[in-house]
Design goal:
3 domains, 589 residues, alpha+beta, elongated
Length: 589
C-alpha cells in the first residue's frame, strides 16, 4: 500500500513537472513570437531593396542609388529585425558598391569586416566580383579575424609586380609594371607601355584616358608586345596643354577586369606643354610619335577642317573608333556605336549618321526699317516728279497717290506748304515697322552642318500707289526671292534632334517699302489753311543682302523649328537697312 502510494506520488510529480515545462516553453514561444513576426516583416522589404540595388542600379553603374537602397535596407533591419545572414549580405553588397563604384574604399572595407563578423561564411557574389573586390575582401577577412592587414597595392592586396622602373613620384601603383611618360608636347600621341607577370591570363588591356578639358573618359585598346608587354598611343587630338590622365585595366577571357593600374580617383598623370620635350617618350623599339597638324579652332564638321591622323596610320577624328557590336563594355564611349547596353555589350554600329537632305517649310519675317529724314516728301516739281531725292512717294488713306498728277488738279500740289515754312510735308527719320514676308523655304543639306537653298514668298504692307512704278523707282511685283546658305553648329547637327545654333547669309530681290505717317498743311486759294494726314512711303531695294542667326530645334530628325533675327540691307532705288525676327518650320525628306 505504501509502495503503491509512493509510486503514485512520483508519477504525479513527474507529470506536474512536464506540464510546468510545457507551459514555460509555450510562454517563451508566445513572448518571442512578435519578434519573429517583426523579423519576417522587415526582411521582405530589405531583400527587395537589395535586389533592386544590385540587379538594377549597380549593373547600370548608378552606384549612388545602389548605396542609398542598401543603406535604407540596413536601416529597416536595424540590429535585430533581420537575420544575421541577411544583414551580413547587405553589409557585403554595400561594401561592393562603395569599392567597385569608387565611392569610399575605406568605408567599403569596413562594411566587409562587419559582414564577415556577422556571418563568417559570407562570400562575394561570383557574378560581380573583380580583382579589386577579391583583394579587399581578403584584407577584410584578416582584419575580422584579428590578423594583420594585407598591404595595399593600388586599392587592394595582391602579388607584388616584377621589379621594373621606379614609378614617377605621386603616380599610382597597381598590378602592372608601368612608368608613365614624364611629359609630352601638345597634339602628340602619348605612348603607354606596360608589362604584366601576374597569375591571371590577360586577353586584352585598355587605357582609359581623359585629356585636358574632356568631360568623359575614353578607352584605347593596347596591343600585345612581346611575351609580357602591352602598348599603344593615346590619340594626338586629345593631348592638349594641361595634364592628361589615364588608368589601366586588364581583362581575362570572360571580359572580367582582373588587373588594374590606377583608377579614376588616382590616375596616372602626364604633363602636356606647348614646347617640344627634351626626351620624347616612345614605345619599345619604336621612334617617338610625331606631332599632329594643328587643324585650328573651326567648329566640328565644318568644311575645310581636316581630321588629324596619328602616327602609324591612326584614324581620322570623324571616323568612329571603339569596339564592335557585341563586345564587352562599361561606358558608351568605348563603343563605335557610342552605346553600351544594359548587359554590358556594345550595340551594333550602324555606320555614319545619316539624315534627310531636302528640307521644305514655311517661314515668316517682319521688317523694322530705318528710314532717312527728308523735306517736301509729297510735293511735286513742275515736271510732276517728287521734289525729295530720298525716293519718298505719298498716298492718301484710301491708297491713292497724293498729290494728284492730273494737270486739272494741280491746285492740290500747289497748295502744299513747303517744309521750310511751317514744318509741313516732312519726315524726321528713324525706325518704323516695314514689310511682312510670308515665304516658302527650300534647303538642301550639302553637309551634316551646311544647307544651301532659297526663299520664295509674298511681301505684305507695301506701297499702294502707282506713280513710283511709272517713274521707274519701284519693283512692282510683291515677291521675295532669296538665295541663302545656312550653317548649323554642332557635330552632325542636321542629323540630330534637339537645339543647335545657326547663322546664315543670303541675297536676292524683293520689295522693301516703309510707310511713315506725315502731316501736310494745305493752303488752297481763298481758303484757310487745313491739315491733311497722309503716308510717305520710302521705297528701297529691290536688291538686298541679308545675314542673321538664331536657334534650330529639331523635334524629330525630320521636323525642326527655326527662330532667329535677320538683318537686311536693301539698295538700288534707295538704301534702307532693316532688322527683324524670322520664324519657321521645316520638314526633311
Amino acid at each position: 500500500m505504501d509502495r503503491t502510494v509512493s509510486s503514485f506520488k512520483a508519477s504525479t510529480l513527474r507529470s506536474f513537472i512536464a506540464i510546468a515545462v510545457s507551459l514555460a516553453a509555450g510562454l517563451a514561444i508566445i513572448s518571442t513570437a512578435p519578434d519573429a513576426r517583426a523579423q519576417g516583416k522587415a526582411e521582405g522589404p530589405a531583400k527587395a531593396l537589395q535586389k533592386k540595388a544590385m540587379e538594377e542600379d549597380y549593373l547600370m553603374t548608378d552606384f549612388a542609388k545602389a548605396a542609398e537602397k542598401l543603406e535604407k535596407a540596413l536601416a529597416q533591419c536595424g540590429t535585430d529585425k533581420c537575420s544575421a545572414q541577411l544583414r551580413s549580405r547587405l553589409k557585403r553588397d554595400l561594401g561592393v558598391v562603395q569599392i567597385g563604384g569608387a565611392i569610399d574604399k575605406d568605408k567599403g572595407l569596413a562594411n566587409f569586416v562587419e559582414a564577415i563578423k556577422l556571418d563568417p561564411t559570407v562570400a562575394l557574389d561570383p557574378d560581380i566580383k573583380t580583382k579589386d573586390l577579391e583583394q579587399a575582401f581578403a584584407e577584410a577577412k584578416k582584419k575580422a579575424s584579428g590578423g594583420a592587414a594585407a598591404p595595399s597595392n593600388g586599392g587592394g592586396a595582391g602579388p607584388a609586380p616584377t621589379p621594373g622602373p621606379a614609378p614617377v613620384a605621386g603616380q599610382p601603383e597597381g598590378d602592372f609594371v608601368h612608368t608613365p611618360a614624364a611629359e609630352q608636347q601638345v597634339r602628340t600621341p602619348i605612348p603607354v607601355y606596360l608589362e604584366y607577370t601576374g597569375e591571371e591570363q590577360l586577353v586584352r588591356v585598355i587605357a582609359r584616358y581623359k585629356g585636358f578639358g574632356m568631360a568623359e573618359w575614353k578607352p584605347v585598346e593596347l596591343n600585345k608586345m612581346g611575351e609580357n608587354g602591352w602598348g599603344g598611343l593615346l590619340p594626338c587630338r586629345d593631348v592638349q596643354q594641361g595634364t592628361t590622365l589615364y588608368y589601366l585595366q586588364g581583362f581575362d577571357a570572360n571580359n572580367d577586369p582582373v588587373a588594374t593600374g590606377g583608377d579614376r580617383s588616382k590616375p596616372y598623370r602626364v604633363p602636356v606643354k606647348t614646347e617640344a620635350v627634351a626626351e620624347p617618350p616612345h614605345l619599345p623599339n619604336a621612334s617617338p610619335p610625331t606631332q599632329c597638324a594643328d587643324t585650328g579652332d573651326c567648329p566640328p564638321g565644318f568644311p575645310g577642317c581636316k581630321a588629324a591622323t596619328g602616327p602609324g596610320g591612326g584614324k581620322k577624328v570623324e571616323e568612329p573608333i571603339g569596339k564592335d557590336g557585341g563586345e564587352f563594355c562599361e561606358e558608351d564611349s568605348e563603343c563605335k556605336s557610342n552605346r553600351c547596353t544594359s548587359d554590358n555589350k556594345c550595340a551594333e554600329y550602324e555606320g555614319p549618321k545619316k539624315g534627310p537632305k531636302l528640307w521644305i517649310g514655311i517661314s515668316g519675317a517682319l521688317d523694322y526699317t530705318f528710314v532717312p529724314s527728308a523735306d517736301d516728301v509729297c510735293k511735286l516739281t513742275a515736271q510732276a516728279t517728287p521734289m525729295n531725292d530720298s525716293n519718298y512717294y505719298c498716298t492718301r488713306s484710301d491708297g491713292s497717290d497724293y498729290p494728284s498728277r492730273d494737270p486739272s488738279k494741280a491746285v492740290e500740289n500747289n497748295s502744299i506748304v513747303l517744309s521750310k515754312d511751317r514744318g509741313s510735308d516732312k519726315v524726321t527719320g528713324g525706325g518704323a515697322l516695314g514689310n511682312v514676308r510670308l515665304m516658302l523655304t527650300l534647303d538642301y543639306a550639302v553637309h551634316p552642318n551646311v544647307m544651301v537653298g532659297g526663299r520664295l514668298g509674298l511681301v505684305l504692307n507695301s506701297y499702294s500707289g502707282a506713280e513710283a512704278e511709272v517713274d521707274g523707282k519701284r519693283f512692282a511685283v510683291p515677291v521675295h526671292l532669296e538665295l541663302r546658305t545656312t550653317y548649323v553648329h554642332g557635330e552632325n547637327a542636321l542629323f540630330k534632334t534637339g537645339f543647335a545654333p545657326y547663322v546664315f547669309g543670303g541675297f536676292g530681290i524683293g520689295q522693301f517699302e516703309t510707310g511713315i505717317p506725315v502731316q501736310v498743311i494745305e493752303t488752297p486759294p481763298g481758303e484757310a489753311p487745313t491739315k491733311r494726314d497722309v503716308d510717305a512711303w520710302h521705297i528701297a531695294g529691290p536688291a538686298f543682302i541679308s545675314v542673321g542667326g538664331g536657334g534650330r530645334y529639331a523635334v524629330t530628325q525630320r521636323f525642326a523649328f527655326m527662330f532667329g533675327l535677320r538683318a537686311n540691307l536693301a539698295f538700288l532705288n534707295a538704301f534702307a537697312p532693316s532688322v527683324g525676327p524670322e520664324i519657321g518650320g521645316q520638314i526633311g525628306f
